[in-house]
Protein backbone atom coordinates (compact mmCIF):
# COMPACT_ATOMS: atom_id res chain seq x y z
CA UNK A 1 0.00 0.00 0.00
CA UNK A 2 1.51 3.33 -1.06
CA UNK A 3 1.16 6.63 0.78
CA UNK A 4 -0.46 9.53 -1.04
CA UNK A 5 2.31 12.13 -0.94
CA UNK A 6 -0.19 14.79 -2.06
CA UNK A 7 -2.35 14.18 1.01
CA UNK A 8 -2.16 16.91 3.63
CA UNK A 9 -0.90 15.05 6.70
CA UNK A 10 -0.41 17.92 9.14
CA UNK A 11 -2.71 20.27 11.04
CA UNK A 12 -2.06 23.83 12.26
CA UNK A 13 -0.89 24.12 15.86
CA UNK A 14 -0.01 20.43 15.97
CA UNK A 15 3.28 18.74 16.92
CA UNK A 16 4.53 15.51 15.30
CA UNK A 17 7.07 13.11 16.83
CA UNK A 18 8.67 11.47 13.82
CA UNK A 19 10.76 8.31 13.82
CA UNK A 20 13.80 8.31 11.54
CA UNK A 21 16.08 5.48 10.34
CA UNK A 22 18.67 4.06 12.75
CA UNK A 23 20.92 3.06 9.87
CA UNK A 24 19.18 1.79 6.76
CA UNK A 25 17.52 4.66 4.93
CA UNK A 26 14.98 2.27 3.38
CA UNK A 27 13.33 2.16 6.83
CA UNK A 28 12.22 5.82 6.53
CA UNK A 29 8.47 5.53 6.06
CA UNK A 30 6.67 7.46 3.30
CA UNK A 31 4.31 8.94 5.89
CA UNK A 32 7.23 10.22 7.99
CA UNK A 33 8.78 11.79 4.92
CA UNK A 34 5.49 13.44 3.96
CA UNK A 35 4.99 14.91 7.43
CA UNK A 36 8.49 16.40 7.46
CA UNK A 37 7.85 17.97 4.06
CA UNK A 38 4.64 19.58 5.24
CA UNK A 39 5.37 20.92 8.74
CA UNK A 40 6.48 24.52 9.16
CA UNK A 41 9.61 23.66 11.19
CA UNK A 42 11.58 20.60 12.26
CA UNK A 43 13.01 20.46 15.79
CA UNK A 44 16.23 18.42 15.71
CA UNK A 45 18.64 16.83 18.14
CA UNK A 46 21.45 17.93 15.80
CA UNK A 47 20.64 20.08 12.77
CA UNK A 48 23.73 18.79 10.94
CA UNK A 49 22.54 15.17 11.16
CA UNK A 50 18.97 16.04 10.18
CA UNK A 51 20.16 18.23 7.30
CA UNK A 52 21.87 15.19 5.75
CA UNK A 53 18.68 13.14 6.08
CA UNK A 54 16.51 15.90 4.66
CA UNK A 55 18.85 16.51 1.75
CA UNK A 56 18.82 12.79 0.91
CA UNK A 57 15.02 12.75 0.76
CA UNK A 58 14.57 16.17 -0.84
CA UNK A 59 12.96 17.68 2.26
CA UNK A 60 13.34 21.45 2.56
CA UNK A 61 12.04 22.83 5.85
CA UNK A 62 13.64 25.11 8.47
CA UNK A 63 15.68 23.13 11.01
CA UNK A 64 15.82 24.24 14.66
CA UNK A 65 18.04 22.62 17.29
CA UNK A 66 16.26 21.15 20.32
CA UNK A 67 18.23 19.41 23.07
CA UNK A 68 18.67 19.35 26.83
CA UNK A 69 20.88 22.43 26.90
CA UNK A 70 18.47 24.75 25.10
CA UNK A 71 15.07 23.20 25.90
CA UNK A 72 13.78 25.95 28.25
CA UNK A 73 14.52 28.68 25.70
CA UNK A 74 13.23 26.64 22.79
CA UNK A 75 9.95 25.84 24.56
CA UNK A 76 9.22 29.57 24.74
CA UNK A 77 9.70 29.75 20.98
CA UNK A 78 7.61 26.61 20.46
CA UNK A 79 4.78 28.27 22.41
CA UNK A 80 4.94 31.27 20.09
CA UNK A 81 5.01 29.17 16.93
CA UNK A 82 2.09 27.02 18.08
CA UNK A 83 0.08 30.14 18.99
CA UNK A 84 0.69 31.41 15.46
CA UNK A 85 -0.78 28.20 14.05
CA UNK A 86 2.45 26.60 12.92
CA UNK A 87 2.91 22.85 12.77
CA UNK A 88 6.14 21.38 14.13
CA UNK A 89 7.98 18.06 13.93
CA UNK A 90 10.45 16.65 16.43
CA UNK A 91 13.16 14.21 15.32
CA UNK A 92 16.28 12.75 16.89
CA UNK A 93 19.45 11.85 15.02
CA UNK A 94 18.29 8.24 14.74
CA UNK A 95 15.22 6.31 15.81
CA UNK A 96 12.33 7.56 17.90
CA UNK A 97 12.67 10.95 19.60
CA UNK A 98 12.18 11.30 23.37
CA UNK A 99 13.54 7.77 24.01
CA UNK A 100 17.06 8.14 25.41
CA UNK A 101 17.17 11.20 23.15
CA UNK A 102 15.95 14.81 23.42
CA UNK A 103 12.21 15.31 23.52
CA UNK A 104 10.97 14.42 26.99
CA UNK A 105 10.86 18.10 27.96
CA UNK A 106 8.73 18.85 24.93
CA UNK A 107 6.30 16.02 25.70
CA UNK A 108 5.80 17.23 29.27
CA UNK A 109 5.17 20.74 27.95
CA UNK A 110 2.65 19.49 25.37
CA UNK A 111 0.63 17.67 28.04
CA UNK A 112 0.80 20.59 30.47
CA UNK A 113 -0.43 23.01 27.81
CA UNK A 114 -2.97 20.69 26.15
CA UNK A 115 -1.26 20.91 22.77
CA UNK A 116 -2.34 18.25 20.25
CA UNK A 117 0.35 15.92 18.96
CA UNK A 118 0.78 12.77 16.90
CA UNK A 119 3.45 10.07 16.82
CA UNK A 120 4.72 8.89 13.45
CA UNK A 121 6.37 5.57 14.33
CA UNK A 122 9.75 4.45 13.11
CA UNK A 123 12.63 2.10 13.96
CA UNK A 124 13.69 1.65 17.58
CA UNK A 125 17.05 0.08 18.44
CA UNK A 126 15.89 -1.13 21.86
CA UNK A 127 12.83 -2.90 20.42
CA UNK A 128 14.89 -4.50 17.64
CA UNK A 129 17.55 -5.76 20.05
CA UNK A 130 15.03 -7.22 22.48
CA UNK A 131 13.07 -8.87 19.67
CA UNK A 132 16.30 -10.49 18.50
CA UNK A 133 17.32 -11.62 21.99
CA UNK A 134 14.85 -14.43 22.48
CA UNK A 135 14.50 -13.47 26.14
CA UNK A 136 11.04 -13.58 27.75
CA UNK A 137 8.94 -10.50 28.39
CA UNK A 138 8.94 -8.07 30.11
CA UNK A 139 12.11 -6.08 29.80
CA UNK A 140 13.46 -2.83 31.26
CA UNK A 141 15.07 -0.20 29.05
CA UNK A 142 17.86 1.69 30.83
CA UNK A 143 19.21 3.76 27.96
CA UNK A 144 22.82 4.88 28.42
CA UNK A 145 24.39 4.06 31.80
CA UNK A 146 25.84 7.20 33.45
CA UNK A 147 29.58 7.26 32.65
CA UNK A 148 30.90 7.54 36.19
CA UNK A 149 30.33 8.46 39.83
CA UNK A 150 27.44 7.79 42.15
CA UNK A 151 24.85 7.84 39.37
CA UNK A 152 26.67 5.03 37.56
CA UNK A 153 27.00 2.88 40.71
CA UNK A 154 23.31 3.31 41.51
CA UNK A 155 22.21 2.44 37.97
CA UNK A 156 24.38 -0.68 37.92
CA UNK A 157 22.90 -1.74 41.25
CA UNK A 158 19.40 -1.26 39.82
CA UNK A 159 20.30 -3.46 36.87
CA UNK A 160 21.71 -6.08 39.24
CA UNK A 161 18.47 -6.11 41.25
CA UNK A 162 16.22 -6.19 38.18
CA UNK A 163 14.59 -9.61 37.69
CA UNK A 164 13.80 -8.93 34.02
CA UNK A 165 15.87 -8.60 30.88
CA UNK A 166 17.70 -5.26 30.68
CA UNK A 167 18.30 -3.29 27.49
CA UNK A 168 21.30 -0.95 27.60
CA UNK A 169 22.73 1.48 25.07
CA UNK A 170 26.50 1.94 25.15
CA UNK A 171 29.12 3.89 23.23
CA UNK A 172 32.24 2.10 21.93
CA UNK A 173 34.65 3.97 24.22
CA UNK A 174 32.68 2.90 27.33
CA UNK A 175 31.88 -0.68 26.28
CA UNK A 176 34.80 -2.46 27.99
CA UNK A 177 34.20 -0.61 31.26
CA UNK A 178 30.49 -1.43 31.22
CA UNK A 179 31.03 -5.09 30.37
CA UNK A 180 33.55 -5.52 33.18
CA UNK A 181 31.25 -3.77 35.66
CA UNK A 182 28.36 -6.04 34.64
CA UNK A 183 30.62 -9.09 34.84
CA UNK A 184 31.56 -8.22 38.42
CA UNK A 185 27.94 -7.67 39.46
CA UNK A 186 26.10 -10.35 37.48
CA UNK A 187 28.69 -13.10 37.09
CA UNK A 188 30.34 -14.71 34.09
CA UNK A 189 27.41 -16.96 33.26
CA UNK A 190 24.69 -14.34 32.74
CA UNK A 191 23.37 -14.57 29.19
CA UNK A 192 23.59 -11.47 27.01
CA UNK A 193 22.78 -10.51 23.44
CA UNK A 194 24.79 -7.89 21.59
CA UNK A 195 23.15 -5.96 18.77
CA UNK A 196 25.65 -3.98 16.73
CA UNK A 197 25.24 -1.78 13.64
CA UNK A 198 21.61 -2.83 13.40
CA UNK A 199 19.95 -2.42 9.96
CA UNK A 200 23.37 -1.59 8.45
CA UNK A 201 25.63 -3.60 6.16
CA UNK A 202 27.72 -5.04 9.01
CA UNK A 203 24.78 -5.79 11.30
CA UNK A 204 25.61 -8.31 14.01
CA UNK A 205 23.63 -10.17 16.65
CA UNK A 206 25.71 -12.22 19.07
CA UNK A 207 24.44 -14.33 21.99
CA UNK A 208 26.45 -15.92 24.78
CA UNK A 209 27.57 -15.31 28.34
CA UNK A 210 29.08 -12.14 29.75
CA UNK A 211 32.30 -14.04 30.40
CA UNK A 212 32.51 -15.16 26.78
CA UNK A 213 31.89 -11.65 25.47
CA UNK A 214 34.50 -10.06 27.72
CA UNK A 215 37.07 -12.72 26.81
CA UNK A 216 36.82 -11.80 23.12
CA UNK A 217 38.81 -8.60 23.77
CA UNK A 218 37.11 -6.83 20.91
CA UNK A 219 37.95 -3.42 19.52
CA UNK A 220 34.51 -1.88 19.78
CA UNK A 221 33.13 0.01 16.80
CA UNK A 222 29.70 1.17 15.75
CA UNK A 223 26.45 1.65 17.61
CA UNK A 224 25.63 -1.04 20.13
CA UNK A 225 22.74 -2.31 22.21
CA UNK A 226 23.33 -4.84 24.98
CA UNK A 227 20.46 -7.02 26.17
CA UNK A 228 21.18 -8.67 29.53
CA UNK A 229 19.13 -11.78 30.15
CA UNK A 230 16.77 -11.98 33.13
CA UNK A 231 17.77 -13.48 36.45
CA UNK A 232 17.38 -17.22 36.57
CA UNK A 233 14.10 -18.13 38.23
CA UNK A 234 13.91 -20.73 40.97
CA UNK A 235 12.98 -23.31 38.35
CA UNK A 236 16.12 -22.44 36.38
CA UNK A 237 18.53 -22.97 39.28
CA UNK A 238 20.71 -26.09 39.49
CA UNK A 239 18.40 -29.11 39.42
CA UNK A 240 18.22 -31.48 42.36
CA UNK A 241 20.07 -34.22 40.54
CA UNK A 242 19.90 -36.81 43.32
CA UNK A 243 16.12 -36.60 43.37
CA UNK A 244 15.88 -36.74 39.59
CA UNK A 245 18.15 -39.78 39.44
CA UNK A 246 15.92 -41.48 42.03
CA UNK A 247 12.92 -40.71 39.80
CA UNK A 248 14.72 -42.29 36.85
CA UNK A 249 15.53 -45.41 38.85
CA UNK A 250 11.91 -45.70 39.99
CA UNK A 251 10.78 -45.68 36.35
CA UNK A 252 13.41 -48.24 35.43
CA UNK A 253 12.20 -50.44 38.30
CA UNK A 254 8.70 -50.10 36.89
CA UNK A 255 9.82 -51.54 33.56
CA UNK A 256 11.09 -48.59 31.53
CA UNK A 257 14.49 -48.59 29.88
CA UNK A 258 16.94 -46.05 31.25
CA UNK A 259 16.71 -44.16 27.98
CA UNK A 260 12.91 -43.96 28.24
CA UNK A 261 13.12 -42.99 31.92
CA UNK A 262 15.60 -40.16 31.41
CA UNK A 263 13.61 -38.85 28.46
CA UNK A 264 10.43 -38.75 30.52
CA UNK A 265 11.99 -37.07 33.57
CA UNK A 266 13.99 -34.59 31.47
CA UNK A 267 10.84 -33.53 29.61
CA UNK A 268 8.89 -33.23 32.85
CA UNK A 269 11.45 -30.93 34.50
CA UNK A 270 12.72 -29.15 31.35
CA UNK A 271 16.33 -30.19 31.80
CA UNK A 272 19.00 -31.69 29.54
CA UNK A 273 18.18 -35.31 28.73
CA UNK A 274 21.82 -36.06 27.93
CA UNK A 275 23.10 -34.65 31.20
CA UNK A 276 20.49 -36.53 33.23
CA UNK A 277 21.31 -39.76 31.36
CA UNK A 278 25.04 -39.33 31.97
CA UNK A 279 24.50 -38.59 35.66
CA UNK A 280 22.18 -41.58 36.06
CA UNK A 281 24.70 -43.89 34.41
CA UNK A 282 27.52 -42.53 36.56
CA UNK A 283 25.40 -43.09 39.67
CA UNK A 284 24.78 -46.70 38.60
CA UNK A 285 28.47 -47.34 38.00
CA UNK A 286 29.30 -46.05 41.45
UniProtKB/TrEMBL annotation:
Residues 14-213 form the Tetrapyrrole methylase domain. One of its GO terms (molecular function) is rRNA (cytosine-2'-O-)-methyltransferase activity. It is found in: Cytoplasm. InterPro entries: 4pyrrol_Mease (IPR000878), 4pyrrol_Methylase_sf (IPR035996), 4pyrrole_Mease_sub1 (IPR014777), 4pyrrole_Mease_sub2 (IPR014776), rRNA_ssu_MeTfrase_I (IPR008189). Its EC number is 2.1.1.198. Its main location: cytoplasm. Keywords: Cytoplasm, Methyltransferase, rRNA processing, S-adenosyl-L-methionine, Transferase. One of its GO terms (cellular component) is cytoplasm. It holds the Pfam family TP_methylase. It catalyses: cytidine(1402) in 16S rRNA + S-adenosyl-L-methionine = 2'-O-methylcytidine(1402) in 16S rRNA + S-adenosyl-L-homocysteine + H(+). HAMAP family: 16SrRNA_methyltr_I. Belongs to the methyltransferase superfamily. RsmI family. Catalyzes the 2'-O-methylation of the ribose of cytidine 1402 (C1402) in 16S rRNA. PANTHER family: RIBOSOMAL RNA SMALL SUBUNIT METHYLTRANSFERASE I (PTHR46111). This is Ribosomal RNA small subunit methyltransferase I. The lineage of its organism: Bacteria, Bacillati, Bacillota, Clostridia, Eubacteriales. The gene is rsmI.
